Amino acid sequence: MRHLFRIAPIALVLAGCGATFDVEVESTATIRSGGLFQNFLSNTFGDFTSLDLSQSQSFQNAGVEKDQIDSVRLSEAVLVIDTPADGTFEFLDAISFFVEAEGAPKKRLAFKQNIPNDAKTVSLDIDDLELAPYVTAPSMKVTTEATAHAPQRDTTIKATLVFAVDPRLF
């Protein structure tokens, strides 16, 4: 019984240590000027179409496996005009990101409406969504849907998604 009392405080300290870590994923997409906009509406960011967050350096550094995940939430989603240097999101009215995985329903992950014409950076509004079922699947994908028109010049967008991963400690 004495050993239990010695272990319990240690467990409480470890539980309060905040073992949560971030996994950042980036992808780029080039939107062609004057062309059809169909490609932007679906699978715009190719690096997001087959994600396995457990293969990231952050997971490896934390020594966490998929089966040790307690919770995952999207904490940040940002779009930035990469090129042209003076480019803006004048062509983009609204965008939504969706998450999908085998055995889990497609759900909206993040979105932004009424994007200002002069914006060079857009922080998306994040849906409060538990992503553990998606992250623990063999593979998940993030797709986009947008309301937009073709830009005046070829435009490259960088998308950054940051996932907060909370592993089980015991």
Describe the fold and architecture.
With 170 residues, the chain is α+β, with helices and mostly antiparallel strands. It has one domain: Jelly Rolls, CATH 2.60.120. Helix content is 16%, strand content 43%. It has four helices and eight strands; from the N terminus they run αβααβββββαββ. The strands form two sheets. It has a four-stranded antiparallel sheet. Strands 6-4-3-7 form a four-stranded antiparallel sheet. A hairpin with a 2-residue loop joins β3 and β4. The longest helix has 14 residues. The protein is elongated, with a radius of gyration of 19 Å. The two termini are 20 Å apart.
Supply the key terms.
disordered N terminus, 4 helices, elongated, 16% helix, alpha+beta, 8 strands, Jelly Rolls, single chain, 4-stranded antiparallel beta sheet
Counting DSSP H or I runs of 4 or more residues, the number of helices is 4
Known CATH architecture: Sandwich
What composes the largest sheet? Answer: 4 strands, antiparallel
What overall form do the CA principal axes indicate? elongated
Estimated helix fraction: 10-25%
Count structural domains. 1
Which secondary-structure class do the elements indicate? Answer: alpha+beta
Strand % is 35-45%
At the first level of CATH, what is the class?
Mainly Beta
Given as residue ranges, the uncertain stretches (5+ residues, pLDDT < 50) are 1-17, 37-41
C-alpha end-to-end distance: 20 Å
Q: Order of strands across the biggest sheet? A: 1-8-2-5
Mean of residue pLDDT values: 82
Q: What is the H-and-E element order?
A: HEHHEEEEEHEE
Radius of gyration: 19 Å
Question: The CATH topology, please?
Answer: Jelly Rolls
Let me know the number of strands. 8
